[in-house]
Here is the input.
Amino acid sequence: MTALRSILFNLLYLLWSILIHVVCLPLLLAPASWVWKAAHLWADGTLLLLRVCCGLGCRELGLEHFPHGPAIIAAKHQSAWETLFLSRRLGRPAFILKRELLSIPLFGWFIRKVGMIAVDRSGKAAALKQMVRDANRAFAEGRQIIIFPEGTRVAPGVHKPYQPGIAALYGQLNVPVVPVALNSGLYWGRQAWTKKPGQILIEYLPAIPPGLDRRAFMAELERRLEPASRKLLTGAD
Here is the structure.
């Protein structure tokens, strides 16, 4: 049954995505706020398809730590799910993402339009400086920053070294960092067409205030985020 429901979801998700991207193509000439409304519609439709077709929902933990002002959200990245959910939950966040995504026809055009922060991963120091400048512009627009510290999707229970981007943002922007743990990869794995029923758990952890040195910050972020993520894997619904 899970396989059949997944096939149905994948088919409807593909059709829904093509429809939204094609129908909303003229919005590339409109204000970015219009594109955000289309993006929210797409995310809402996709999350609805997950619930209806696959029986997959979510539950939020630690809502007392949910960021309402300027903040960097440092989230684990196991699935495409959190990009959809967090973009909808935070309204108009600026994701830190790899520059190659801008080259994807239609999708890349839309994420460029709404001001996502694309990083040239081969650019080293120059790329980090540009990322910080772009993040400052996003804050000036009243947006929050979302970054995946490991820089890529990582399977549940696997840990990869944190990349320097999160430390550069923390050191330069003088805002708190909110770690976010989740277990989405148990239900929607990387490159996995099967979507399993259940409830994805996403937990907002206490913010790390600005002012720590680089080494202390990175150690504290890992100390909070990794055990919380492992705990959610054992507490899956």
